[in-house]
Design goal:
164 residues, disordered N terminus, alpha+beta
Length: 164
């Protein structure tokens, strides 16, 4: 019963509810620009997402024939789906404006960028959205610098907290 109340509380806030995040994306890539895209789903996929059964940590987006697709995103099969169930790792079409798609596709081909999904969430209208980032890969020394900066910020916060 407590879970049902928590879910209804979430909807009353009006904000977005995160389903899955790709935490390693910001560690492995320099995110230069991020976009919000809709995603084409079947009914059983949406029901599975409402239960929070998704993983986008190993997925990526690619441009094919003027369209964007989310590849290798995992959405668990819905238990009550029977024969209408979906394939767990099928490529899913992303919905964006034509100009954005063309600009992203050109950046991927010309500059050697990659499209990385950052998060999967329900927006305030209860539509499933994907936040994707146009990214370039980090080298090992960049990753070490990121870790060093994060540790320093953590330590700085502790020192400031103790000095109060």
């Amino acid at each position: 019963m407590a879970k049902a109340k928590a879910k209804s509380k979430d909807k009353s806030k009006g904000g977005s509810r995160t389903i899955a995040q790709n935490r390693k994306a910001r560690y492995n890539y320099h995110i230069e620009e991020d976009f919000e895209a809709g995603i084409v789903l079947t009914g059983t996929e949406v029901k599975s997402l409402r239960a929070g059964e998704a993983n986008i940590s190993e997925s990526y987006a690619e441009a094919k024939m003027g369209e964007l697709f989310l590849v290798n995103g995992y959405i668990k099969e819905y238990e009550m789906g029977n024969r209408f169930n979906h394939e767990a790792r099928r490529p899913r079409k992303l919905l964006m404006h034509r100009r954005e798609v063309n600009r992203i596709a050109a950046a991927i081909q010309r500059k050697g960028k990659t499209l990385v999904p950052l998060s999967l969430y329900f927006n305030d209208k209860n539509r499933v959205k994907v936040k994707i980032g146009l990214a370039s890969g980090k080298k090992a020394h960049d990753k070490r610098a990121t870790e060093k900066e994060r540790d320093w910020n953590r330590e700085k916060g502790r020192l400031l907290k103790d000095s109060r």
